[in-house]
Design brief:
By secondary structure, the protein is an alpha/beta fold. The protein is built from 5 helices and 7 strands; from the N terminus they run βαβαβββαβαβα. α2 (34-43) packs parallel to α3 (60-69).
């Protein structure tokens, strides 16, 4: 079981993701903005970060910079979701998932990255 932090400002998408990830056997925490996500990661570092590239208060590059500085977060994998992600996930050293996403593909990506962390 991997602890996953979902950072998504659209509540409906966040709920769907959290539900699917929990059903897949993961522990899930959610945040709707970068400040809350950083506080949650500081409290308990996730094994994997699943994030939208656009959310209130902070741009994705700034968020990932701060996230990577937190204890336990420097090496955790990141999956970046966006409808307009061209090039950005590479800059963030993240796996890209295009919105709208196929939930089965997203879950398979999460499984693969989680397995690579325990191997």
């Amino acid at each position: 079981m991997t602890r996953i932090l979902v950072v998504e400002d659209e509540v409906d998408i966040s709920r769907v993701l959290a539900s699917a990830l929990k059903e897949d056997g993961h522990e899930v925490a959610t945040a709707q903005d970068g400040s809350v996500a950083l506080a949650e990661a500081r409290r308990q570092p996730p094994g994997l970060l699943l994030m939208d590239l656009q959310f209130p208060e902070m741009d994705a590059v700034t968020f990932v910079h701060h996230y990577r500085q937190l204890p336990g977060c420097a090496q955790s994998p990141i999956i970046a979701m966006s409808a307009t992600y061209r090039g950005m996930p590479r800059a963030l050293e993240a796996q890209a998932i295009e919105k709208p996403f196929d939930l089965d593909v997203l879950l398979a990506t999460v499984r693969d990255l989680a397995a690579s962390q325990t191997a």
